[in-house]
Specification:
The structure is a homodimer. Chain A is an alpha+beta fold. Chain A has helices spanning about 5-10, 55-75, 95-110, 160-170, 180-190, 200-205, 215-230, 245-250, 255-265, 280-290, and strands at about 25-30, 35-45, 75-85, 115-120, 125-135, 150-155, 210, 230-235, 270-275, 295-300, 305-310, 315. Chain A has two domains: about 30-135, PurM-like, N-terminal domain (60s Ribosomal Protein L30, Chain: A, 2-Layer Sandwich); about 150-315, Phosphoribosyl-aminoimidazole Synthetase, Chain A, domain 2 (Alpha-Beta Complex), CATH 3.90.650.10. In chain A, the strands form two sheets. In chain A, strands 7-9-6-10-8-11-12 form a seven-stranded mixed β-sheet. In chain A, strands 2-5-3-4 form a four-stranded mixed β-sheet. In chain A, helix 8 crosses helix 9 (about 255-265). In chain A, about 55% of the residues are buried.
């Protein structure tokens, strides 16, 4: 089967009007007046961002979901995406079909369409890239640089399940002791991150700055510090963990060590944001109304760094705040 | 050096306002009223679309230029792009710097900016992807499906230098006999394709369908046939070759074989388009005014295929009309 047939069979049904049935070499979009377009791009490399040998609906779901968390953080509604696939020549039609099913599922959950893309063959690892396009009311995109000293810092969902998901999928001995139910939970957290898209309108109304948690809670908070020119005090005990996360950290020799791992590992795809202190009650109301937990974890202060604080107000030293490419860490 | 520092140092100066200095996790664009946005995406894989071991300004130029030809074919003016880099860990800062210089050069030639992107490390070949964003007056994008029976078929520039460029860069014995000057010409054709952007307005005004020549002249014409539901008669003798191309084909045992290779090899990044027969004189006038050659090579007819015709009106059989991924050919 050639590239064109492959695209026709499996991808054309995913295309919106903008993708012209994938029969053109470009996609065309008539922007809605009064809206800005927001672009995000994330790439997954086999053996780096997902385990070797996979190319299925799980990979497709993960690809779109990790991009959707960027849009959610910006307050943007997804409208479409472009897809780049670098695939080994030995890829099988059933794999493409399964991958397309994963795309389709996420598209229908969040109501957006495939605009186009390209497919190439590679003799290296499979690499999949999506460029997501979303929109926000003109001038309203939430940036990283809008945090102010005195603002409160919030995070959606739970932090650390990204790490547990990775360890479980990689069959790392670290999660061997978890029950089968807990392991399933972790695998799902890995393959199906849940970007907090329903909180979009709340973020647009109230967030002064926001970002998603992809490189690690502390590292991503630091990017806000850097461009907002301030520091942050984060209370470790306030960082929300899931029941599985609390259990895992609790059974480790050093619970502190375990928690530090969880808040620096990344892959959570939750949203961190800052708000003026008087917005606290409305944030809490929104959150409980939607049934999506949002937790206050600290405060913006004068300074230039994220400081992690314990219950007695003492700073906890953190040797390495997050995942950095082109360095020593592997995953 | 970490990923962030790398991006800050080399890529931030390339970013427009939409890229927010690459300090955010998204780019934001306020679309110009009255315009549609056009998206194209092309990927280059080391060892497939450029020779192994390269990561320099040549690769950057080729990446942007092969995407620009798609925009030119659609009648779209480039405004920005997103860049995905999958790089080996051993990549050196001077290589990133050189690559960035290539991006900068093409950006300033065609007046568009970097909006954002992402960088990952890979243990396979280097893979670079660009998503280009252009605009056209609302509803005016030139599609592949607008050709009508009776329309004339045109091509910009010369066809076949893409093949000679590839053979030269790959140090294939096929181009050993060329003079050093001719070999330089071929290398330049490979690394610096010249998308016929200045013809954009002419295409917007007069083209009924268009596409760029990336997979091979005949294969790309066939995509227009397929979606416009017609056939094409192409006169081989009318297909424009460069002086180097004519020389190369002339010295081969079979000039016909050589020409067939040139019109099926791809990588030309010129534009093919169709027009109503009464547009001939205005097309010629535009072309000579801009000093950019445009050549009439055939006619749209009833049918479903591209037929290659010789001077006596006989059909020339063509075993394989173009480059197809996931099949037998390698390059």
């Amino acid at each position: 089967m050639d590239e064109f047939e492959l695209i026709r069979s499996y991808m054309a049904p995913l295309a919106g009007g903008e993708g012209l049935g994938l029969q053109d070499d470009a996609a065309v979009l008539s922007p809605e007046p009064g809206y800005d377009l927001v672009f995000t791009k994330d790439t997954l490399v086999e053996g780096v961002h997902f385990p070797e040998g996979y190319f299925d609906q799980d990979v497709a779901q993960r690809l779109l979901r990790v991009n959707l968390s960027d849009l959610a953080a910006k307050g943007a509604k997804p409208i479409g995406y472009l897809l780049s696939l670098a695939l080994p020549k030995a890829i099988q039609p059933y794999q493409i079909s399964d991958f397309a099913n994963g795309l389709k599922h996420v598209q229908s959950l969040y109501d957006f369409k495939l605009f186009g893309g390209d497919t190439v063959s590679t003799n290296g690892p499979t690499i999949v890239t999506a460029t997501l396009i979303g929109n926000v009311p003109s001038g309203k995109m939430i940036k990283r640089n809008g945090a102010r000293i005195g603002d409160e810092i919030w995070v959606t969902g739970a932090i650390g399940d990204g790490l547990l998901g990775l360890l479980t999928v990689m069959e790392d001995a670290e999660t061997d002791s978890l029950s089968p139910e807990f392991r399933s939970f972790c695998e799902l957290a890995y393959w199906r991150p849940q970007p907090p898209m329903p909180l979009r309108q709340m973020l647009l109304n109230w967030a002064s700055a926001s970002a998603d948690v992809s490189d690690g809670l502390l590292a991503d908070l630091e990017t806000i510090c850097r461009v907002s020119h301030l520091g942050m005090d984060i209370n470790l005990e306030d960082v929300p963990l899931s029941a599985v996360g609390r259990h895992w950290a609790g059974q480790k020799l050093s619970t502190l060590e375990a928690k530090l791992q969880m808040i620096t590992a990344g892959d959570d795809y939750q949203v961190i944001f800052t708000t003026s202190p008087d917005a606290g009650s409305v944030i809490t109301a929104f959150s409980s109304d939607l049934g999506l937990p949002v937790t206050r974890i600290g405060k913006c202060v004068a300074g230039s760094d994220v400081r992690l604080i314990d219950q007695s107000g003492q700073e906890i030293p953190v040797p390495n705040k997050g995942y950095v490419h082109f360095q020593e860490k592997t995953r």
